[in-house]
């Protein structure tokens, strides 16, 4: 059987590269985004009633890794990146059909000159991610607090505190006008410690950078805390 699927929408996200995106939704609440509905799916009546929901399920396509073969066994970061586990026991993006699933905050519907847009937050989606479907989150059946969550029993720890250099502090004063809550957004992204597992294990003073919006956020780990050293417009 062959299936043909086409995206119903595309995500506009401040996450411009995979590095730094949280591994699940809900971890970085200041990550905002917009889903632009495409082509024949851009029908306002298809979204009537959606505003009564606070959260939505998004099914999406891992477009940036879709050219890579799926891996039956993967090494999830949650296991320190060195133990293997089956693909279907993880949320790895290297999977058959490259389909991702995230529950996100729904902030509102916008319809301007016939263009439907959905405002979302607390997501884990790369810019330009194709959206395959949208469904309301229904707590009575979707929220299962007693479920066994295996290796995901605990939410990831945010072990490192984040400090800003004086250069960054003064740049943020202006940047906050363009990107409200940018400071909190940077704090939340970096507190997840985006470094790959093998780098966390060794002491290092490497410089890293993460792109959020059109900004290159430069940082390093120093004395068990993250120091944001500069922010540069790209
Ligand atoms: N919540 C989803 C799920 O469980 O199916 C995604 C989980 S996956 C572990 C999350 C990671 O996917 C993010 O940290 C980011 O690096 C990556 N990602 C997000 N959007 C992507 C895209 N469009 N293409 C490829 N990778 C993407």
TrEMBL record:
Entry keyword annotation includes S-adenosyl-L-methionine: yes
Record CDD domains: UPF0066
One Pfam family it belongs to: TrmO_C
Keywords for the protein's UniProt record, in alphabetical order: S-adenosyl-L-methionine
SUPFAM superfamilies in alphabetical order: YaeB-like
All residue ranges annotated as the TsaA-like domain in the record: 5-146
Family assignment from sequence similarity: Belongs to the tRNA methyltransferase O family.
Name under which the protein is recorded: tRNA (N6-threonylcarbamoyladenosine(37)-N6)-methyltransferase TrmO
Transmembrane segments: none
GO molecular function: tRNA (L-threonylcarbamoyladenosine(37)-C2) methyltransferase activity
